[in-house]
């Protein structure tokens, strides 16, 4: 079933991975302000929190690592302001996703606290994104001489805020939130996407980029069947040690391909400000022509959705999930099982699909080291919010406030 190279991959030596995992100071646990919501569990590279309670119902969350260092970050906050969900899918490194996870909610809290009634609005969310982008750009500037690579990292952002029976969804990049909504009298649940994606493979995104950059014929380029912003593509060849079935050590050359497809992000300041598109950043990131206006935007698309009693649950996930599962399949998995373990169940379903595409078994995929795993699937983060409309309509406040961050100890 498998080719020789893949068979060798499945015989990887695990001594290094085991020692790395056992040395993780927190065992992959998140941080909590509410002990009633339990703790994270762990299954290899999969971390999960099967079920917990927030102000509007129950939640489930999980993350699986594929990169050498996890580039996804996420958090849930629930208190007097309402409920906040953030999923941040980093690229080029984890730094931007970590920064946004640390700061975006903090900015939103500070902005909403200045308003008389404290009710969240779309304008407040927009301002919080702007403050976060400004802060990360300042960080890049401050560390330009010591850590110039920070100019080349960025993150997609997917934020959901529930405030006074209204859901706000703000997005940059290609993470996605899907609503499971009851339709008709049969109990059927439909899959309704509630976020706008900014991926150059979408015709409307290419048209937007061309309209914003009318004098740049290379703003989007088709290479090898994939549309890329500015045609940016970097290939890094890395040697990975593994053991064959006979116990002989060998090496495998893996082409780790990084393609730039998103048109909006926080970070990636080398594509937004000319002063960061120069040495000492790596030559592969430097554009041949000067940047006279930002190539990428940090302005989120914001959708406002009044919550309806037929709205059953929300699936927030980084694009690693949606590469392998359709909206309908994901909703069907959630609706067909108990709330507990929903996020973990979705990730396992995606990994099973990723394994099938390579003619592998899921059990084989689980044995592959995180540094090689990225060749099979991306980091994946999933948060499922189940909506209890009695609690939402009554404006029940989570007490004590809930604060959970899903991340590996670094």
From TrEMBL:
SUPFAM superfamilies: PP2C-like. Transmembrane segments: none annotated. It comes from the Eukaryota. Keywords: Hydrolase, Magnesium, Manganese, Metal-binding, Protein phosphatase, Signal. Its EC number is 3.1.3.16. SMART domains: PP2Cc. Residues 58-387 form the PPM-type phosphatase domain. It is an enzyme of class 3 (hydrolase). GO terms for molecular function: metal ion binding; protein serine/threonine phosphatase activity. Its cofactor is Mn(2+); Mg(2+). Residues 1-19 form the signal peptide. Belongs to the PP2C family. This is protein-serine/threonine phosphatase. The lineage of its organism: Eukaryota, Viridiplantae, Streptophyta, Embryophyta, Tracheophyta.
